[in-house]
Design a protein that fits this description.
The chain crosses the membrane at residues 7-29, 49-70, 90-113, 119-141. Keywords: Membrane, Transmembrane, Transmembrane helix. This protein is mainly α. It has one domain. Helix content is 83%, strand content 0%. The chain is built from 7 helices and no strands.
């Protein structure tokens, strides 16, 4: 059941939809882009340092993503005892998997010096964009989780005052 949920979370996601849209956009506009946007004129320094963006996004996700599972010392126990915690863990695992899987094509395009080709640039930008969407998902998850834990604390405080 957890494996099926993992697959559902992976394939029914903003990140996957973004990659599908990138593929469709490439297929529909390949001839137009190759005719009107020559990539051979890209700045060599920009190409040399391009990998900083996806590596930075992936690094941020690894560092800050842990706060989704371990938001604060006082709330961790309530979170980890939550009956649907396993679902949160699956979403975390999918996000970390995305960070790894989406960084690999960026690195491959960069290391093969293919950023100055239409396909290479499209793959790099598409997967770097998907990494950004993935990082934004972690960011919003942290916000929603903090909000839920604050509401939990407030309801526990109200119950303690009534008793």
């Amino acid at each position: 059941m957890k494996a099926l949920y993992f697959l559902r979370v992976y394939f029914v996601s903003y990140e996957f939809a973004f990659l599908v849209l990138c593929l469709a956009g490439y297929m529909l506009s390949q001839q137009f882009l190759s005719a009107h946007f020559p990539l051979s004129t890209l700045n060599e320094d920009a190409i040399k340092w391009a990998m900083i963006f996806p590596a930075g996004i992936a690094g941020w996700t690894f560092k800050e993503g842990v706060a989704v599972l371990f938001p604060s010392d006082k709330n961790e126990k309530a979170l980890h005892e939550w009956p649907d915690y396993w679902r949160l863990k699956v979403h975390f695992d999918v996000g970390i998997t995305n960070s790894i899987l989406f960084t690999i094509p960026c690195f491959a395009v960069w290391i093969m010096s293919a950023l100055n080709t239409l396909v290479g640039a499209w793959v790099f930008v598409g997967f770097a964009g998907a990494l950004s969407v993935n990082a934004f998902s972690f960011y919003t998850a942290k916000i929603h989780l903090k909000s839920a834990l604050i509401r939990l604390d407030d309801s526990n405080d109200s119950n303690n005052r009534v008793n």
